[in-house]
Design a protein that fits this description.
The protein has 150 residues and is mostly helical. Helix content is 56%, strand content 11%. It is built from six helices and three strands; from the N terminus they run ααβααββαα. The chain has helices spanning 7-28, 33-41, 49-56, 60-72, 94-110, 120-134; strands at residues 47-48, 76-81, 84-92. Helix 1 (7-28) packs antiparallel against helix 5.
Length: 150
């Protein structure tokens, strides 16, 4: 199936709108986008560096720098892996978990506001189409369905 001319531009414009809204939500919590994604990824459980690199789409050196900066802010901590002295996991601190949960709530409320002009039935269809387009139900860092875990 061939998309209508201009559909690619429409998708780019939507992407920019979503990215700007997400960046503003992050800024409202005094976080960079990368720090927010890291906090959301570790809000419920510690994660290993390899898993985080894959989840966040970062090379290990970039991830190490992000973790270092976020550790200095007191939002995450490195936790030694008991079965491998060289490896560590990253866990949210109590303050980091609190900010991660607040970010999750804001994302859940403020990103869908972009589509407030659509009737509820169209919003449901859009959600189904987006899920189908990405090949799975909507999930990932800060995007799980349901209320944030405490």
């Amino acid at each position: 199936m061939t998309a209508a001319p201009g559909f690619g531009n429409t998708l780019v414009r939507l992407s920019v709108l979503i990215q700007r809204r997400y960046a503003q939500i992050c800024a409202d919590h005094d976080l960079t986008v990368a720090q927010a994604q890291l906090l959301c990824a570790v809000k419920d459980e510690p994660r290993g560096m390899s898993e985080l690199a894959q989840l966040l789409g970062l090379a290990k050196p970039g991830l190490s720098g992000l973790v270092d900066r976020t550790v200095r802010r007191g939002l995450v901590e490195r936790v030694a892996c008991p079965n491998d002295r060289r490896a560590c996991s990253v866990a949210g601190t109590p303050m980091g978990k609190e900010i991660g949960r607040a970010m999750y709530r804001d994302v859940a409320i403020r990103l869908p506001d972009i589509f407030d002009g659509l009737p509820e039935s169209d919003r449901r269809v859009l959600e189904e189409l987006v899920s189908a387009a990405i090949g799975s139900p909507v999930s990932g860092p800060c995007l799980e369905d349901g209320p944030p875990a405490d």
